[in-house]
Amino acid sequence: MTPEATTPAASVVLHTIDAQAAHRAVGEAVQAAQAMGVRVNVAVVDASGVLAAFLRMPGAPLHSVEIAIDKAYTAVSFGLATSQWNEALQQHSVAVREGLVRRPRFVAFGGGLPVMENGQRIGGIGVSGGSEQEDEACARAGLAAIGLTA
């Protein structure tokens, strides 16, 4: 047996969304927003939470640029849709509830979804500019464009 065979690996395989899929997802989310008559910002982050694709519709709220990115970041961070945080936080102590919502980049309202493929979290998508329901619907349309669901 060689020494390499007994040494544990010092790395892991990380599955992450590719650039083409990220761009298709933001494009379809924007098309869904156009069909609804809302102007949004759409962000896709990779499995590490790094921005992979972004589109801003002309006239979308400026504050929503960072909110869309943070929704995607929150979704990939925990693998939970941002719309589910209100209910999820009720199951935790006051310290956890208050601590999490004060974290930078944490968003606890609708519009962010984890991007899952074959049980692996490969990214997150965040939409901001419409209502929570409109934002989430646009995010779901983005996932559907790459053959995935939330």
Automatic annotation (TrEMBL):
The keyword Secreted does not apply. The keyword Plastid does not apply. Keywords: Plasmid. Pfam families: HbpS-like (PF03928). This is Heme-binding protein. It comes from Polaromonas hydrogenivorans. The lineage of its organism: Bacteria, Pseudomonadati, Pseudomonadota, Betaproteobacteria, Burkholderiales.
